[in-house]
Amino acid sequence: MTATTRIRVIDLETTGSSPPAHAVCEVGWQNVVLRDDGHWSLDADHGARFVNPGRCIPPVTMAVHHIMDDDVKGAPFWQEVAPSILRPEAGAVALAAHRASFEQRFCTPKLSGNAKWICTWKCALRLWPDSPSFSNQVLRYWRMPDGLDQPKGLPVHRAFPDAYVTAHHLRDQLNEAGLEQLLAWSAEPGLLPRVPYGADRGRYWGELDDEALGRYTSDRNEDVRFSAQKEVENRTGAISPTGAGPVQGRLL
């Protein structure tokens, strides 16, 4: 297996969401590889490691992942363990995570070797717009991916089980849309199929009148602005610089 046929899915459990005030306390991974028949699948390379965050784990985050200070006592620090996991010896064409922007806060370009990233959340928005939600676990039960071993994907909010579930979404996205398309979608803001909040919450963008739609094009949320602008382009026939406008017309 070569670097160009391997993607490593990463999941982190942390003491909070904002480094350097917060730090990693567990990392999990699962490889997805390209087989000789041209299809992507999970392989046997997976694992998890505790990481010493160098500080106490707050009770509010213990309550999410149930990792305690005694669990990480004596574990290596993130700067020590990250390179070998983010840059495996055999290489990888990309790293992947669900809502990858979170992992990228801790997996800096220096640690990852300037790796490319796939965000399975952003790709799910594009490929499965009718899902009731786009969290890792809702997609798990809405989609019921083939081959997902239920006990292996538990408990939730632990690094390896979450990476394992994400890898099933990634496998199916790769087989449906291809690597280059997933990388392109991941480099853009999230294309939300429905309005996420406010008076129009839950409505598809195509259901809004022009005046309501126009208000969202200046929303403070980047994903909302991007999604509203894509609907404007669909209505006016404009082609976005990325060429994604006509594709979205089909998906939405």
UniProtKB/TrEMBL annotation:
Sequence segments annotated as region (Disordered): 229-252
The keyword GTP-binding is annotated on this UniProt entry: no
InterPro entries reported for this sequence: Ribonucl_H (IPR013520), RNaseH-like_sf (IPR012337), RNaseH_sf (IPR036397)
Keyword terms, alphabetized: Exonuclease, Hydrolase, Nuclease, Plasmid
The keyword Nuclease is assigned to this record: yes
GO terms classed as biological process: DNA metabolic process
Exonuclease domain ranges (all copies): 6-179
Pfam families for this protein: RNase_T
GO molecular function annotation: 3'-5' exonuclease activity; nucleic acid binding
Protein name: 3'-5' exonuclease
Originating organism: Croceicoccus marinus
